[in-house]
Amino acid sequence: MVFRHLLGFSGVDLRRITFSWVSAAEGAKWADIVNSTSETIKKLGPYDSYHAVAGLKEKEAEYVGN
Amino acid sequence: MLEIKQKARELLESGKAQVVIGYGKGPNNTTRAIFVRKPEDADKLVLDDTCVQNLALYIYKHEVRHFGKEAVVATLPVLRSLLQLASENQVKDNEIIAIAITPDNKVVELDSFAAIEEHVRLFNTGLTEDEKDLLKKINAMGLEERWAFWNKEFSKCIKCYACRQSCPMCYCPRCAAEVNQPQWIPVAAHQHGNIEWHIMRAMHLAGRCINCGDCARACPVDIPLNLLTYNLIEELNNEFKYTAGLSASQTYVLSTWKLEDKETFIR
C-alpha cells in the first residue's frame, strides 16, 4: 500500500501496476489476475513516458561503450 | 545558550559524559557540528536558528563512540531520531545523555528513553500546514505532469549520495546502492538510475523518517527530497495511525500486522 502510494506520488502510472496475494493453491485466481492485468495494460498501450526515460539508459550504455 | 554551555561543562567536568556533540561556529556565519571533549571548550557551543542539522547522525559513529560516554545537544528532530534509532536497536537506554530545551526555554538533561519520550510529547510532531500544502500541490497534478515534475527534479541528481550520508536513519554499513553483485541500482547518474535510487531511498525511510529535512538541505542541486518523505509520513499516518520516533519501544510499522490494519490494496 505504502510503496504503491509512493510510486503514484512519483508520477508512475498506477493502472499498470497490480499487487495481489495469491496462495499456491489458487491457480485460477492467479490466472485471472494475470489476464486482467495484461488486458488493462494492452488497452493502455505502450508506456511511452517511461520508455523515454529507459531509452536514456541505453543511450548512455552506448556512450560508455558497454 | 549560556545554560547549554554550563550544562555541557558540568557534564564534562563531572565525568558524566566524555564528549558533548553540539553546534559550533563554522565558516561564513554558518553553524556546524562540533565535538567538545574538554570542559573549557564548552564555550564554543552555540544554539540558534541556524542550528538545523540533525546531530543524531553522529551518535552511533564508531569514531564518536570511541570518545566515551556521549551527550548531545538535542533539538526535537534529534530526540525523535534517538527514539527511532532506539526502536531499531541502534542505541541502548542510558547510553546517551540528551541536552534538550523545553517549550518554555529551559535546559533539561534527559538520560533515559522514558524521559525523552515524555519530552517529545510536549511538542507537535505532525506535518505543518505548509508541508501539507506542498503535498496537496503535487497530488493535484495530473499523471503526466507529476511524472514530468519528478523527472525534471531527478534529472538534476548527480548521485553524490549526500541525502543518504546526511540521514541518521541510513546507517547500513553497506548500502544496497553500492552492492555490485548483483547490481540492483545503476551507479551512473542517468535518469533511469536516479529515479530508482530516489524511490528506493524514500521507501527505506517509510515509517522511519522523523522529518528533520536534512536530506533536502544536504542536496547540492536542491531536489525537494523531503516531499517524498512528507508523502510517506502522511500516508502512514492516514493508513496506520503511525508516527515514527515517538517511542523507543514501537515496532516497525511495515513488518507488524495488526487486526485493525486495512487490507484494501489486496484483491
Description:
- The complex is a heterodimer of chains A (66) and B (267).
- Chain A is mainly α and 66 residues long.
- Chain A is 65% helix and 0% strand.
- The mean pLDDT of chain A is 83.
- In chain B, 39% of the residues lie in helices and 11% in strands.
- In chain B, strands 1, 2, 3, 4, 5 and 6 form a six-stranded mixed β-sheet that branches.
- Chain B is built from eleven helices and six strands.
- Chain B is α/β, with parallel strands linked by helices.
- Chain B has two domains: 2-120, no CATH class; 129-244, no CATH class.
- Chain A binds chain B through residues 1-7, 9-13, 19-21, 33, 49, 53-54, 56-57, 60, 64, and chain B through 138-139, 141, 143-151, 186, 188, 190-193, 195, 198-199, 202-203, 206-207, 228, 231-232, 235-236, 239, 254, 262, 264-267.
Q: Summarize this, please?
A:
The complex is a heterodimer of chains A (66) and B (267). Chain A is mainly alpha-helical.
The whole-number mean of residue pLDDT values of chain B reads 90
Distance between the termini of chain A: 37 Å
The class by helix and strand makeup of chain B works out as: alpha/beta
Secondary structure tally: strands of chain B: 6
SSE string of chain B, helices as H and strands as E: HEEEHHEHEEHHHHHHH
The total count of strands of chain A amounts to 0
In angstroms, what is the radius of gyration of chain A?
A: 16 Å
How many domains make up the coordinates of chain B? 2
Structural class of chain A: mainly alpha
Spans of chain B of at least 5 consecutive residues whose pLDDT stays below 50 are none
Secondary structure elements and pairings:
The complex is a heterodimer of chains A (66) and B (267).
Chain A: H1 2-9, H2 27-44, H3 48-64
Chain B: H1 2-14, E1 19-25, E2 31-36, E3 45-46, H2 56-59, H3 62-65, E4 70-74, H4 76-87, E5 96-101, E6 107-110, H5 113-120, H6 129-140, H7 143-155, H8 162-165, H9 191-204, H10 214-218, H11 225-240
Parallel strand pairs in B: 1-4, 4-5
Antiparallel strand pairs in B: 1-2, 1-3, 5-6
